[in-house]
Structure formats: structure tokens, C-alpha cells
Design a protein that fits this description.
3-stranded mixed β-sheet, 458 residues, 6-stranded mixed β-sheet, single chain
């Protein structure tokens, strides 16, 4: 079907300092300078409108980090219906170092027709690289997370290909063999359960994946909103000028749990600097690993590597909010956008809406589908006692402010570089530096955050 496929590329990462700064995980946006059109993509049954008038098949290049689904041919198979309906040939190009390699390509006009928008592209710069899919008012009635890649004028430049519920990945058999019959609802219960796994099984109770900490440790940040039990928590941090690490907020319980866990050698792997991401998928299926903090996107990948997929489970965040309930935030994964330099923009937009809305990819991967009327996946069945919510949209007067404060302060709540507070906490925990060091680190981060917040907000 396809002439050729590329998997991991050998290009060096070249991040452009003027564009790739901060983190794009927030849904906040700022006004871009480029003129934009607000064209909604047409149905896949319509004939694609492109610059191609020869009648030959149009080749649509799609960049993805899903090298696994490029290599196993499942993306090709999934896309046949779209190709047949639109007389085109979709070429998937997969990169293992997705952000770095795509950053290099985005230094030119040649970065495919469709691509997952790197999170390091600031929201105010979206219009410099991407064509709008439509407006928020047009798209939000149909799609979840339509505001994630939205500018201050409510132009949407990308749609999530699926979403995740926030929680903890675990091996059901390992937990059962340890005699655990109910899921933990507090950090103390969680740590006690991991201690049972250490005492009663041969499994590593918790696997840190620390060798790849630049991205794996940021998985802990995804727990913060759920831990707060407040969909408006991020906005409240600004409007109410809350302490970033207040004990009754979301940051404190999440990172205190991480610190306490990493401070307990018996509960983690012996050498956290030799962890292996791909191998860990097999090891968890084999019962050698008990638990990991990962988004629900990981469930399907781990089940695929397990001889018995049913042993891979997913539990709510083991933190109970002040109202006595457990909460689970649903969040989007990568957003798919259209290169503003593409010669096939209409077909590219059509592909984006087909992929996120009709292809079935998210459901197949055990993710939450992007279309609002879709059912939740089976792997979230254990969340029956938790309440799902999505983060409250940012009000206009605060658009871009959270990211501005985060960048100005240097806190970088979604960062994982060597100077980030998560790494400082982890290293202090591994070194057994204790409670005083934990308090010292979070106090410094809170002070930096408050200073930048007051400067930005006045």
C-alpha cells in the first residue's frame, strides 16, 4: 500500500529558542500575529479540495511519534478507508525522538502535511506554523479538549487524537498475590500496599523509569488536578493567589507521595539509572513490576506486551480530596494539526477530523475518544467510584498568564530537565535527605512562583 516507511530518524534535535520554550500542556492562549482562516474540515465522503488538479493520487505526509503503529502496519490498515474515499496516499513518518526531530524540520517549511503539534510550541506561536482547523465555538460542541491548541482569538490549530484518564498503572495479579483486595484511596494506603508487594511477592513494587526522567517524571504532574479535586484549581492558583505547594492543594500531596516513595529503597528498583521503557512493558506483564504512574494511554501498550492482557489494570489516583471523594481528570494526548505551508490543506484538515473523530484509533488504543458522544474505554472500569472531570477553561483575562508565570518563575510544572524541582525532589529522595530537604525544595519553588505571579498579575 505504501511505497516506504520511515521509523526513527537520525536527525539531531535543534530547538529554536524563540519558539520552543516553556510547555504547551496548558490550554491557555495568547493572540498570534498571523492572519487566520476559520475553515471547518469537510466530511470524508466529500471530494478533497487541494492544489492538485491532475487527477493523480495526492500524497499526504503525516508525522507521528507512534513508531510502534507505523512498524506494525496498523496505521496503514486503519487508513485504507480514508485513502479510498479521498483518492490519496497517506504516508506515515514515525520518529522516536519526535519533539527533537520535528523541531529540526520546523526550522524549514517542510514538516509534513499533518503532524502532532509539539508541546514546546508556545500557543502564541501556533499561527506561525499551523493552519486553523476551525473556531472553538464550531468545534467544542463535537470534540473534547478543543481549547488545548487555541489562541486568544479562539482559533483552534489542532485536535487531540485521544485522551487519557489520570491514574496509576498496575499488575492486578501482583497486587492480588500481595493480599490486596481494595484499591488505595490515600497516599498512606498506597505506600502500605506497595510494602505488602515488597514483603509478599518477588515483584518490584514501583518502577520509577528514572533513566528517562525527562518525560517519565512529568507523569506525576498529571496527577495534580485530580488530587486537588477541583476542576478550576489552575485558575484558582492565580485568582486567589494560592500557595503553589499548599498542603490542601494538588501539588503538595502528589509530590509528597513521590518523595516518600522514592525515599524508600525497598519499594523501587535497585538501580533507578538503568530503567528500560520498552522492556518494562514486558516485565510488568510478567509480574516483575507491580506499579507505575502513567496515563491511561499506556494501558493498551502494556496489555499488548503481556501474555495475559487482563492482568494489566488501571486505578484512580490514590489521593482523596477534602470532600472525601476521589477524582480523575481526563486530559488530551497530542493534538494533530495542519502545516500552514502544506499544498494540501483541505485534505489535511479532512484527515485530521477523520482521524480524531472517525478512525477508531483512540478506542483501539484504550484511550478516551475525542468525540464527545463516544463511550469511555473498558480499561477505565475500575474508576466507577471516582468522579471524572475536565479542567475548567481559562477565562479570557487569564489567557496565557499561567504559562507566563511558569516560564518567568523557572518552576516549569511540566518540565523534566535536570534543574527542575521534580528532579531535585527525586535526587534528594534517592539520597535519603529526608523531610527537611523536601520542605526546603518546595518552599523555594513556592517563593519563585509567588514572585513571578505577583509581577505578571500585579
Amino acid at each position: 500500500m505504501k511505497a516506504s516507511k520511515l521509523t526513527s530518524a537520525g536527525l539531531a534535535a535543534l530547538l529554536m529558542a524563540a519558539v520552543f520554550t516553556g510547555c504547551g500542556s496548558s490550554s491557555e492562549g495568547e493572540t498570534g500575529t498571523a492572519d487566520v482562516k476559520n475553515d471547518a474540515a469537510a466530511s470524508t465522503a466529500d471530494t478533497a479540495k487541494t492544489d492538485n488538479t491532475s487527477g493523480d493520487k495526492i500524497v499526504l505526509e503525516v508525522l507521528t511519534n507512534r513508531t510502534d503503529r507505523v512498524d506494525d502496519g496498523s496505521l496503514d490498515e486503519l487508513t485504507k478507508a480514508f485513502e479510498n474515499a479521498n483518492n490519496c496516499d497517506v504516508q506515515y513518518v514515525g520518529y522516536q525522538d519526535y519533539t527533537g526531530t520535528v523541531a529540526t524540520r520546523m526550522g524549514t517549511d517542510d514538516y509534513g502535511d499533518v503532524l502532532m503539534i509539539p508541546d514546546d510550541v508556545e500557543l502564541k506561536d501556533l499561527s506561525n506554523f499551523f493552519d486553523p482547523i476551525g473556531t472553538y465555538d464550531e468545534l467544542s460542541a463535537k470534540y473534547r479538549w478543543a481549547d488545548k491548541k487555541m489562541d486568544a482569538d479562539k482559533n483552534v490549530y489542532g485536535l487531540a487524537y485521544g485522551g487519557n484518564a489520570v491514574g496509576v498503572l498496575y499488575n492486578k495479579k501482583v497486587w492480588a498475590d500481595a493480599g490486596i483486595t481494595t484499591m488505595p484511596k490515600t497516599p498512606d494506603e498506597f505506600l502500605a500496599d506497595l510494602k505488602l508487594i515488597a514483603d509478599k511477592t518477588d515483584a518490584i513494587p514501583y518502577y520509577t523509569q528514572y533513566k528517562d526522567a525527562s518525560w517519565t517524571i512529568t507523569q506525576w504532574q498529571s496527577l495534580v488536578l485530580s488530587a486537588s479535586g477541583n476542576a478550576n484549581y489552575e485558575n484558582d492558583l492565580l485568582t486567589n493567589k494560592l500557595d503553589l505547594f499548599a498542603e490542601d492543594g494538588g501539588y503538595y500531596p502528589v509530590y509528597k507521595l513521590m518523595f516518600d516513595l522514592f525515599s524508600t529503597p525497598d519499594l523501587i528498583e535497585e538501580d533507578h539509572m538503568t530503567t528500560e521503557w520498552e522492556s518494562s512493558k514486558v516485565w510488568m506483564g510478567e509480574g516483575k513490576i507491580g506499579t507505575m504512574v502513567m496515563g491511561s494511554w499506556a494501558v493498551a501498550q502494556f496489555q499488548e506486551k503481556a501474555e495475559d492482557p487482563s492482568v494489566i489494570g488501571y486505578m484512580p489516583v490514590p489521593i482523596t480530596a477534602a470532600d472525601g471523594k476521589q477524582y480523575a481528570e481526563t486530559t488530551s494526548d497530542y493534538c494533530v494539526g495542519v502545516n500552514k505551508n502544506s499544498k494540501n490543506k483541505e485534505l489535511a484538515k479532512k484527515y485530521v477530523e477523520w482521524f480524531v473523530g472517525e478512525s477508531g484509533f483512540a478506542a483501539k488504543e484504550g484511550m478516551i475518544p475525542t468525540t464527545i458522544d463516544s463511550a469511555l474505554p473498558d480499561n477505565l472500569s475500575e474508576f466507577s467510584g471516582a468522579e471524572f472531570f475536565e479542567k475548567t477553561p481559562t477565562p479570557e483575562e487569564l489567557l496565557g498568564k499561567f504559562d507566563e508565570i511558569d516560564t518567568k518563575s523557572g518552576v516549569s510544572v511540566w518540565g523534566g530537565d535536570t534543574d527542575n524541582f521534580k528532579i531535585k525532589l527525586a535526587e534528594a529522595a534517592f539520597a535519603g535527605k529526608g523531610e527537611d530537604e523536601f520542605k526546603s525544595i518546595i518552599a523555594a519553588e513556592s517563593e519563585k512562583w509567588a514572585k513571578a505571579r505577583d509581577e505578571v498579575l500585579g
